[in-house]
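Incident log entry.

Two folding requests arrived from the same account within the same minute. Monitoring flagged them as a possible duplicate submission, but the sequences differ. Recording both here for audit purposes.

Request one:
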Amino acid sequence: MSAVLEIGQVVAERDVHLTRESLVRYAGASGDFNPIHYRDDVAARVGLPGVLAHGMLTMGLSIETLVPWLEDSGRITEYGVRFTRPVVVHPEDGADVRVVAAVGALDDESARIDLTVTHADTTVLGKAQVRIRLV
């Protein structure tokens, strides 16, 4: 982690490619086997645009973007998001999620890191903010 932080500074970013296999693996790990996460027919029947990535998967991969920069995930003291748009995972092409983490606020002991999380040029997590200890 950089010793000197400035508001607006990008501290981490990454692109994650999700596939239907990613969703099945996450379902197995999380126990969330809701069929909207793996069956097109069920997703269509309930009015969704396609099979959706789990919201908690999107949230988890977003916060994970910070861990290499932090070098210690124990410095994360708070994390919250609003789920604003779904990540639709195409059966063949999958879905790409982009995460950019920038310093949003600073005080003597902590920083707020704002995450911009997008899929297909659309923000999928709103007010995605992480509070970290600086010391």
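Request two (distinct sequence, not a duplicate):
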Amino acid sequence: MDWKIFAAAPLAAVLLVASAAPLAPLNGWSSGSTGKTSKAYLMGIDNSVQFQGQRSISVQSQEGLVEADSHAGVIQSAFGYQGRRVRFSGWMRSADVKQWAGAFVRVDAEGTERFFGSGARKDLKAEDLPFGAGGSSSQERWMEVSIVVDVPNTPTAMVSMGAMVVGEGKVWLSAMRFEEVGLDVPLTTARIGMPLPTPEQRAAEAKRLAEKASRRIPPNLSLE
């Protein structure tokens, strides 16, 4: 089997006490978030929370700046696995979780990430949500998480993975591993926990946008 691994996971967990130290930048990763401001979530490396001596990536909501469907994540991507079954795993802990926090994996046939940003949420359906390993309650001790997905068999197929918080909460992910697995390994079916608009809410929003588009506002009454 062709194993492709970017970090090795240790066999046992040791939890170090967290401090309020600032998060360090994440080289080689990207990030995305929604919320009342661009600073609704802090994202980066938390040197103060370690798993068996290994640093952790972290996403942390900031009080008063997020809503139930606000979300943020740190993201790593992989290409060249089209038609393969892959697994993203690691060790996770979380705190102050009100909606959902954990690890996620998203597969996309076209090689584009459509999940983050308010525009992407307008027509978001349950089947569009990333696969997740985590929960709606805080996990104060390190726990192993694993997500297994099939990658579409298209030339531009992409796998996105990382740590995510929906709503309020904090998550840490360490000792990460990404690898190809056999077809005998069961697929993950759980999705991240994120509230989605009802059909009635979708219809009301579509009507509001249509009415807005049909109006013409006088463009320069103030003669600026």
